[in-house]
Amino acid sequence: MARILLGVSGGIAAYKAVELVRLATGAGHSVRVVQTEAAERFVGRATFEGITGAPVLVDEFEPDPVRGAYPGDPAPDHSPISHLELVRRADVYAIAPASANTLAKLAAGIADNLLTAAALASEAPLVIAPAMNDRMWSHTATRANVETLRARGATILPPGTGALASRGEWGAGRLAEPPEILAAIEEALRAGPFAPRSLDGLRLLVTAGGTREPLDSVRFVGNRSSGRMGVALAEEARRRGAAVTLLAANLAVPPPVGVETIATPTVADLAREALDLPPVIEETIASLRPLAERKGVELRLGAVSPTAWADPSRLRQILNNLLSNAIKFTPEGGRVSVDAEQHGDRVAISVTDTGVGIAPADQHRVFEEFQQVGDRMSRDAGTGLGLALTRRLVEAHGGHIELWSQPGQGSRFTVYLPFVAPIPGTGEQPELAPPDPGQLTILIVEDDPGAQHLLRTYLNAAGYHVIAAPTGEQGLQLAREIRPAAVLLDILLPGIDGWEVLRQLKADQHLAGVPVFMATVIDEPEVGLANGATDYFVKPVDRHRLLTRLAQQLLPVATNPRGARALAIDHDREVLALIEAALRERGFEVIGTTSGQEALRLAHTEPIDLIVSDLALSDLDGFMLVKALSEDPATCNIPVLVLSGGPNGRSAERTPLGVRPADGIITDQLQRQLAGLSRPAPGAR
Q: Which of 376, 433, 515, 664 is most enclosed, with most CB atoms within 10 A?
């Protein structure tokens, strides 16, 4: 069996080391013990010597009667330095208990006693079982020391929770139980000379855990895979001699020591390669052909470009999502086709169907999370995540996806991916899609994809046009090109940081008036505001406060001597209060009513600049209200915003009328509609 060197440091838990030695010798191992002087105050040498049958050493300069030999070993003929020979022969070195002082010395490489000197001299696996007061265990210095030792390959057994040595105290700090410690020692032995070598010369790739595809910076779509099985396979393969690479996605357990680990938390981190497109598309079509045949839908492969720069498994997932959707929404006798052609440095992969099509009002929602369109039966068959995840997969490749659809004729989803690998160092310039008429453009300067996606989601939902740049240099270039209505700026950026970007924006006579909102983890609002920032948000950014502050900066109040007056109408008094509050945030004087008929009277008798009404009123249909206002010369020029309780296909031909869901985000929706009423000149505050 194995030779175990056990180091025992000072602490009340030293008594458990006696049981550990008894268990180890009972399992057939040869054990030698070294103690600190403090440990002798709790358990004497004679106790350990009686169980191991070998001398116990405390001082590095004291002679070893058996010259470093372990029980059952012959003593060496020469006279080696005893404690170094003891270390050299060890198959594993375990320290139990390890006090906070001992952990600190081990992490710092201090060798001021036999126990710590042995740790520096040993090349054997190191197993450490800490024991101390819970406040000492939770101290940041101790936690840092533990992580340092783990990083060097030591196995750390976390202490248990329970009653501590001090009377009445309870917490984490109890030494792990002796059977657990022995199991860890034997596990470490299997990683050393006792491991079978049946996989010598082989290279293995192991995947463990599950990717988490972020919906925003807080939420993600993933699975419950902990990665334990993959990690165990990787560890065992390494013990058997294989050269192992582990693709680790959000592991719930530490990655194995001695295994090359590549972190892949999301699909954006997976490998892309020059991919032969035809076989990938053909395989995906073949896998879905039975589904198409059962439904009576023709599945056709058109002309296909030869290559793309993509992750093969993720491209199959993209195609599978698009083709499955197309088959689902195409009636019997219809057709679904796939084509791919090169467009400059991009490959355009199109999935076209002759299905039911998507209404124009729904097309902007199909890529949003948990949004479903089409007939109710088809919607009930899904989760509303397929196209949202497809878009994220495409964007992870540096591409984008477009939709064309005509109700009754069909739909075409086109995925644009890089044709070849991007040239290192060039970076990808953000695409400058033009804003819709009346939209305000917000420039986000943020290098973190998750944070950028979250801010983009907030702003898009509020009706803003968003352009994003991952570096300060690109942000400045875009600001000069597009003159955004406002800038959201991170501080920690590659290249020039956010402070320098802010300085240059404020020094530019054309951009000095553009509001700049800092959004960062750096908690220095005073510095940001002193340097010209309009407002300062410490991440995570509060959505409502961000949209409110943007609205306050970008929507000037009407210049009227009496002030701007709004009429708010809703049968629900709580909702009416929310609408009134949102209007008052914009500086409106508000008149509120729960009656549509009363609203018509007020519109005739009071000077009103804006009307905000619920669609479903108790005494008058919202569309009838709009119709009555539109047909009366006295009220036909008053802007009307309509909020509805749910999706509604009806529309009113009257600008700036909007029909929007009035759920738990009424104030955000109202701010979005208010944003469309007037657009300040670029650079205006």
A: 515
Handedness of CA 94, 99, 100, 106 (dihedral sign): negative
Distance in angstroms (rounded) separating the CA atoms of residues 657 and 654: 6
How many other CB atoms are found less than 10 A from the CB of residue 536? 18
Between 622 and 346, name the one with better pLDDT.
346
Exposure string of 163-188, with b = 16+ CB inside 10 Å and e = fewer, is ebeeeeeebbbbbbebeebbebbbeb
Contact 45, 37 (CB under 8 A): no
Sheet holding 659-661, edge to edge: 589-593, 565-569, 610-614, 640-644, 659-661
Collapse the DSSP code of 590 into the 3-class scheme (helix H, G, I; strand E, B; otherwise coil) and give the result: strand
Task: Please report whether residue 198 resides in a domain.
Answer: no
Q: Sign of the C-alpha dihedral, residues 625, 627, 632, 635?
A: positive
User: Rounded mean pLDDT of 498-519?
Assistant: 92
Q: What average pLDDT does range 352-381 have in this prediction? A: 69
Q: Are residues 297 and 389 in the same domain?
A: yes
Active site residue 531: no
Domain end marker among 269, 285, 304:
269
**Per annotation, catalytic residue among 113, 133, 145, 223:** 223
- Helix-, strand-, coil-residue percentages of the chain, each rounded to 5: 35, 20, 40
Least confident window among 93-102, 262-271, 555-564, 612-621:
555-564
Domain containing 251: what range? 203-269
Distance CA 31, CA 10 (A): 19
Shared domain for 253 and 291, answered yes or no, is no
Q: At what angle do helices 14-26 and 178-190 cross, to 10 degrees?
A: 50
Give residues with Cβ within 8 angstroms of 660, minimum separation 6. 642, 643, 644, 669, 672, 673
pLDDT of residue 672: 52
Which string of DSSP letters, residue by residue, matches 213-245?
EESSSS-EE-----SHHHHHHHHHHHHTT-EEE
Tens digit of pLDDT for each residue in 123-151?
A: 899 999 999 988 899 899 999 999 999 99
**Same domain, residue pair 91 and 127:** yes
Residues 254 and 283 in one domain: no
Pick the closest to residue 99 from 19, 42, 33 (CA basis). Answer: 42
Do 136 and 7 share a structural domain? yes
In a domain, 333, yes or no: yes
Cβ-based burial of 151 (10 A; exposed 0-12, middle 13-18, buried ≥19): exposed
